[in-house]
Recover the amino acids of this structure.
C-alpha cells in the first residue's frame, strides 16, 4: 500500500517536473501553432512508458493528467 502510494507520488512529481520546461516553451510559442501543439503533447509518450513499466493501471491516468496540466500551467506562469 505504501509502496503503491510512493510510486504514484513519484510519477506525479516526475510528470509535473517534466511538463514545467514544456510549459515554458509552450508559453513562448504562438497559440495553436505546430510548436505549441508539440510542446503540449511531447512528454506524453514518456509518461505513458513510465506508467506501463511501473505496472500502474489505467485508474491512475487522471492523476497523471492533473500533474501534466499543472506542470504546463505553472511553466507558463514562470515564463510570463
Amino acid at each position: 500500500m505504501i509502496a503503491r502510494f510512493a510510486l504514484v507520488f513519484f510519477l506525479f512529481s516526475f510528470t509535473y517536473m517534466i511538463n514545467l520546461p514544456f510549459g515554458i516553451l509552450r508559453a513562448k510559442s504562438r497559440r495553436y501553432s505546430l510548436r505549441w501543439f508539440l510542446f503540449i503533447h511531447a512528454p506524453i509518450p514518456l509518461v505513458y512508458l513510465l506508467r506501463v513499466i511501473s505496472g500502474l493501471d489505467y485508474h491512475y491516468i487522471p492523476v497523471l493528467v492533473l500533474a501534466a496540466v499543472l506542470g504546463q500551467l505553472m511553466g507558463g506562469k514562470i515564463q510570463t
